[in-house]
Specification:
By secondary structure, the chain is of the alpha/beta class. The protein has eleven helices and seven strands. It has helices spanning 30-37, 63-76, 89-100, 119-135, 137-148, 151-156, 158-170, 175-187, 215-223, 239-242, 244-257, and strands at residues 3-7, 15-19, 41-45, 82-87, 105-111, 201-206, 227-232. Strands 1-3-2-4-5-6-7 form a seven-stranded mixed sheet, sandwiched between helices. α3 links the parallel β4 and β5 (105-111). It is globular and about 50 Å long.
């Protein structure tokens, strides 16, 4: 798989791995790169069959396969311990990684994730799937921002969204790859196994997320032995993109709190809600 290693390169630098959502591209994390690179060794990657990581995703593909692929990448880089930050599908990869390779994760951040698919999320996925199958790629890509971003952000960033639409069409992962990855995500059910996740895990939600209701993160945190839930009020499903000014400090505080080079006890707990940003 295609990857980049950025940030600190000293021998004792802690590693943060960033795992994207259904789109699979490491470029999703651009708003976090400058902040994280100043403190950590940072790895971004394009998931198998997405972005620069060309390849065919087979029928019957599972979230466990995605976790194994990431574990293989990290093993090849001689990384035996890391923090993993995953958005939606990337967070579900992280949970499966925590179950299959428990010694690997120093901490885990699951952004807008879940233990089991919510009916609202299933509804949104089915709409997107039907658009792709019945109306074609351009309709699918054109509708995608509606599920990711708040309305006022969409209105204010029209030129950026037009550019993003062209890029996504040009670099589309392929219908079969997307459908097989989406089916793997929809089939994942961790409700019976989350009690085995030993890594400290932050379930990070956004209250105005249309795609994944925020209660799914609260439920996820409650099922984890070392789970914690924090919430932003604004930003939509992709709040790390729409409001990095609020998102980034919360993420950095969590990572520093769980750094092996920092005291184990937190100086304070993360806020359960952040203030609505002023526009």
């Amino acid at each position: 798989m295609y990857y980049k290693v950025l940030g600190k390169n000293n021998a004792d630098a802690e590693t943060v791995v960033l795992s994207s959502g259904l789109g699979g591209s490491g470029s999703f994390w651009q708003p976090q790169m400058a902040m994280l690179s100043g403190h950590f060794r940072v790895i971004i990657y394009d998931q198998h069959g997405t972005g620069v990581s060309k390849g065919t995703v087979p029928a019957g593909y599972r979230m466990e396969d995605m976790a194994d692929e990431l574990a293989g990448l990290l093993n090849g880089l001689d990384i035996t311990r890391c923090h993993l930050v995953g958005h939606a599908l990337g967070g579900i990869i992280g949970l499966h990684l925590a179950l299959r390779y428990p010694a690997l994760l120093q901490s885990l951040v699951v952004i807008n994730g879940w233990a089991k698919l919510d009916n609202q999320t299933r509804r949104c996925f089915e709409v997107r799937q039907n658009l792709l199958l019945n109306s074609g790629l351009d309709a699918y890509v054109q509708a995608q921002p509606l599920f990711l971003y708040p309305g006022d952000w969409l209105s204010a960033n029209d030129a950026l969204l037009r550019e993003e639409r062209q890029h996504q069409v040009a670099h589309f992962q392929g219908m079969e790859n997307l459908l097989h990855r989406l089916q793997a995500l929809m089939n994942s059910d961790l409700t019976q196994t989350l009690g085995q996740v030993i890594a400290p895990t932050l379930a990070f939600s956004c209250k105005d997320d249309l795609l994944v209701p925020w209660m799914r993160s609260a439920d996820l945190a409650g099922r984890l032995p070392n789970g914690e839930h924090t919430q932003m009020l604004y930003g939509g499903h992709a709040m790390s993109v729409t409001d990095p000014e609020t998102f980034n400090p919360i993420l950095l505080e969590w990572l520093q709190r769980h750094s092996s080079q920092k005291p184990a006890a937190p100086s304070h707990r993360l806020p359960t809600e952040t203030t609505w940003p002023k526009h």
